[in-house]
């Protein structure tokens, strides 16, 4: 039996929690967690260090609430989905009838990489719907850009407000629709310079070599992961895209940006990259690995075809 | 243009090189260099091809390939190995340090049945070389056989220009070495080579020395995983290519364990 606002709901009960102060956050989160514990439901916090400390201080000692490291949990969207699905599967197997989670993306996720976190927020409506999950996604309205808040409204079916009020989100958009919308790529500052390398119709091996040469400043592990990502996308471009494929690489001392284009329309699966092998979609597993091998991945269509851009290294 | 593993890299070659050539003159030159090095090392040297080398400063034993292997014959891998094992012993008995052979074996791999048998034979010979004083350079005419067939054979030699190499790193069947780059373009060759090397687990494990591996894609890892699981074993892949570990973890492979080495 599920308890609280999600009682009687099948699958994922996904609510956004906009807040403008610590007190406002606690007024929602603390009863949400303690009600869960009281009902015997796993109650989990995935916040960054500051808000985790705030919640911890507001809870009674030995409250039974579990804490995950929010920063690690939300390193990359496809990885977060994989980790949460594993966690939810384990809890359900252990007998949980509902799992309660409060989470918050780290502040940088609301900046240049928000696009793939917006896709995450849309995709999880589907990806977590196999589980009796009730989650609150906290957004600090003092720091969250308006455009991000607009996406929050479009990707969350509901809002939760202080006083146990639950509101339908009027802007909520079906995940498949949201994920299929074309979002032009926000140019990376490195792309203001001429590319370090440009290759027409490269083989995967040629693409790997071009990336290795440009990525000499990265750690070996980061470079290898980026090489995997690029090799998989070039392989997919040849196998499933339309010629000509094109590779462009920009780099500086500690960041590398790689764009792979072809004249096709890109993957048809709206969850491509975020979930493995959705409906056995062609190239799905390689793209899913790509999304977990780079610090940022985005893709878009334009008049000349489809481009996927992979970035490794953080902007200062 | 002829492509060979570098005979200059003799230590790395493990004594088993592959030459894929377009011009027969390239086989003649490479065979001369390979056998000259064997001769300098005190080995009995043997030239197997069509015709006889001319103008060399030494005279190898010459065997006409058609006389040794009738046209269209399919090699018996075990019997083929036994012939070379006996010849190696004979060379030792005659006071040589071992046996060194340069062979143009294009005629032996023209049909699918010939290719399959010969590729299995290559693995047996390669394994034998790890603890016996036998070295060989196998040459294939790329113009006659096509690029696919030559790569299919070259990838089973430690010393070749194939994009990847799968070869014996020990005389027994518990492990193998994997070098170079594996991706979608090499997947079929890799699967064939894996099948042919016919590993047998030791203590539930198959050892894959990937110290020369610079790239492996997820499909090739899946193939290795399936291969190990079909043998109720775990393939222990030792490599410095760290992303192999990431991919194995993401795909939750149960048949592959990646051990990162420096």
Write the topology of this structure.
The complex is a heterodimer of chains A (316) and B (262).
Chain A: E1 13-19, H1 22-38, E2 43-47, H2 49-58, E3 66-69, H3 70-73, H4 77-93, E4 99-103, H5 114-127, E5 133-140, H6 146-155, E6 158-161, E7 165-168, H7 175-180, E8 197-200, H8 204-214, H9 220-240, E9 246-251, E10 256-262, H10 284-291, E11 296-302, E12 305-312
Parallel strand pairs in A: 1-5, 1-6, 2-3, 2-4, 4-5
Antiparallel strand pairs in A: 6-7, 8-9, 9-10, 10-12, 11-12
Chain B: E1 3-4, H1 10-13, E2 16-21, H2 24-40, E3 43-49, E4 61-64, H3 65-68, H4 77-93, E5 98-104, H5 112-129, E6 134-141, H6 142-145, H7 147-154, E7 164-167, E8 175-182, H8 187-197, E9 205-216, H9 218-230, E10 234-239, H10 243-250, E11 256-260
Parallel strand pairs in B: 2-6, 3-4, 3-5, 5-6, 8-9, 9-10, 10-11
Antiparallel strand pairs in B: 1-2, 7-8
Helix pairs in contact in B: 4-5, 8-9
Description:
The complex is a heterodimer of chains A (316) and B (262). Chain A is of the alpha/beta class and 316 residues long. Helix content of chain A is 37%, strand content 22%. Chain A contains ten helices and twelve strands. In chain A, strand 4, helix 5 and strand 5 form a beta-alpha-beta unit. The longest helix of chain A has 21 residues. Chain B is an alpha/beta fold and 262 residues long. In chain B, 40% of the residues lie in helices and 26% in strands. In chain B, the strands form two sheets. Chain B has a six-stranded mixed sheet with strand order 1-2-6-5-3-4, with helices on both faces. Chain B has a five-stranded mixed sheet with strand order 7-8-9-10-11. In chain B, helix 8 links the parallel strand 8 and strand 9. In chain B, helix 4 runs parallel beside helix 5 and helix 8 runs parallel beside helix 9. Chain B is globular and about 60 Å long. About 3% of the residues of chain B have low confidence. At the A-B interface, helix 8, helix 9 and helix 10 of A face helix 10 of B.
């Amino acid at each position: 039996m599920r308890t609280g606002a999600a009682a009687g709901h099948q699958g994922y009960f996904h609510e956004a929690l906009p807040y403008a102060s610590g007190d406002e956050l606690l007024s929602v989160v603390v009863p949400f967690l303690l009600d869960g514990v009281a009902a015997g439901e796993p109650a989990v916090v995935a916040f960054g260090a500051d808000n985790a400390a705030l919640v911890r201080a507001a809870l009674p000692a030995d409250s039974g609430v579990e804490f995950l490291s929010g920063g690690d949990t939300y390193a990359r969207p496809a990885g977060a989905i994989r980790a949460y699905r594993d966690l939810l599967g384990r809890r359900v197997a252990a007998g949980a009838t509902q799992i309660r989670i409060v989470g918050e993306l780290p502040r940088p996720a609301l900046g240049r990489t928000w696009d793939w976190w917006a896709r995450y927020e849309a995709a999880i409506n589907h990806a977590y719907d196999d589980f009796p999950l009730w989650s609150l996604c906290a957004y600090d309205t003092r720091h969250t850009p308006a455009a991000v808040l607009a996406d929050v409204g479009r990707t969350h079916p509901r809002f939760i407000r202080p006083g146990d009020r639950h509101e339908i989100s009027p802007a909520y958009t079906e995940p498949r629709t949201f994920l299929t919308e074309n979002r032009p790529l926000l140019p990376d500052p490195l792309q203001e310079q001429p590319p370090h390398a440009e290759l027409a119709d490269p083989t995967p091996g040629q693409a790997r070599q071009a990336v290795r040469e440009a990525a000499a400043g990265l750690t070996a592990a980061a470079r290898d992961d980026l090489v995997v990502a690029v090799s998989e996308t070039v392989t997919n471009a040849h196998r499933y895209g339309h010629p000509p494929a094109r590779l462009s690489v920009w780099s500086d001392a500690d960041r590398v940006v790689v764009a792979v284009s072809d004249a096709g329309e890109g993957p048809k699966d709206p969850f491509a990259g975020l979930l493995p092998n959705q409906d056995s979609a062609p190239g799905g597993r390689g793209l899913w690995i790509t999304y977990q091998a780079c610090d940022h991945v985005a893709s878009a269509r334009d008049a000349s075809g489809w481009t996927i851009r992979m970035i490794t290294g953080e902007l200062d | 243009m002829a492509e060979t593993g570098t005979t200059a890299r003799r230590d790395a070659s493990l004594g088993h090189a592959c030459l894929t050539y377009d011009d027969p003159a390239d086989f003649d030159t490479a065979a001369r260099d390979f056998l000259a090095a064997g001769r300098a090392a005190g080995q009995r040297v043997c030239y197997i091809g069509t015709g006889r080398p001319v103008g060399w400063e030494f005279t190898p034993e010459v065997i006409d390939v058609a006389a040794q292997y009738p046209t269209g014959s399919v090699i018996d891998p075990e019997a083929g190995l036994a012939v070379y094992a006996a010849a190696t012993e004979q060379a030792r008995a005659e006071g040589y340090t071992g046996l060194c052979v340069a062979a143009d074996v294009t005629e032996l791999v023209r049909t699918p049945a010939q290719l399959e048998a010969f590729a299995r034979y290559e693995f047996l010979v390669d394994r034998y070389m790890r603890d016996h004083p036998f070295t060989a350079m196998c040459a294939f005419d790329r113009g006659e056989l096509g690029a696919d067939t030559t790569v299919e054979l070259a990838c089973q030699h430690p010393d070749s220009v194939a994009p990847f190499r799968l070869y014996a790193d020990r005389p027994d069947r518990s492990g193998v070495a994997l070098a170079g780059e594996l991706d979608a373009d090499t997947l079929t060759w890799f699967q064939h080579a894996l099948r042919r090397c016919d590993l047998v687990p030791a203590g539930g494990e198959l050892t894959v020395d990937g110290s020369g591996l610079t790239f492996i894609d997820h499909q090739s890892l899946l193939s290795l995983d399936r291969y190990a699981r079909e043998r109720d074993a775990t393939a222990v892949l030792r490599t410095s290519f760290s992303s192999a570990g990431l991919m194995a973890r993401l795909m939750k492979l149960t048949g592959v364990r990646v051990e990162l080495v420096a």
